[in-house]
Amino acid sequence: MLIAQGCKVIGIGRRKERLEQLADEFHGNFHALDCDVRDSLVLNRKLNELPDEFAAVSKLVNGAGLLQGQGTLLDVSDEQISTMLDTNIHGLINVTRAVLPKLIASGHGHVVNLTSIGAHVHYQGGHVYAASKAFVDHFGRCLRTELVGRRVRLTSIAPGKTRTEFALVQCAGDQARADRVYSSLTPLEADDVARAVLWALQQPEHVNINLIELMPADQELSYR
Ligand code: 8X3
């Protein structure tokens, strides 16, 4: 969607082949940066080696995040907890710190953080994941106080159930179980969330969209 609007996009992710497919598809408008956001050394090195036409960055969309495991706090492993905290919190901080000087230098920067409705509501099984998203939500609000006057806007986007690889990751690759996560309702699609990101980015420069919370029309929120 951003490329269709005339932007050049840098995609950061671990799966190099997928990024390279996108680079082929959007030749010249997409730069593949294969990196684990948890690895700030590699991230910073690769961001310092961007080709000239991608070196100036004005928008950052922080989307890396995951939920691993199901059940209570005692049902998830130490490793799953570390992976969630390292990715959802440290990874997001790493990318934000690495890119922020470029956003400030651009004179029209914008950070969009993908949180979750889990940042705003509590529910059984939410524990580490939902709390990590609450961290991102609060981190964003605090960061915004530093960005006022520096021409960098900040938006949190908090989706509910969205049909992506999220459930497959949560269910450790078990597709049948993952499908059941979305079977009781019509979930959001990735495009529904992408349109919210785009809308926030497209507002006039004097407008800061603080928060967009969106969810499937038939997802319950009785636990709010
Ligand atoms: C996940 C949102 O509704 O699947 O970020 O718990 S939900």
UniProtKB/TrEMBL annotation:
Q: Which Gene3D superfamilies match?
A: NAD(P)-binding Rossmann-like Domain
Residue ranges crossing the lipid bilayer per the database entry: none
Pfam families (alphabetical): adh_short
For this UniProt record, give its keywords in alphabetical order, as a comma-separated list.
Oxidoreductase
Which superkingdom, per the lineage? Answer: Bacteria
State the family named in the UniProt similarity comment for this chain.
Belongs to the short-chain dehydrogenases/reductases (SDR) family.
How is this protein named in the record? SDR family NAD(P)-dependent oxidoreductase
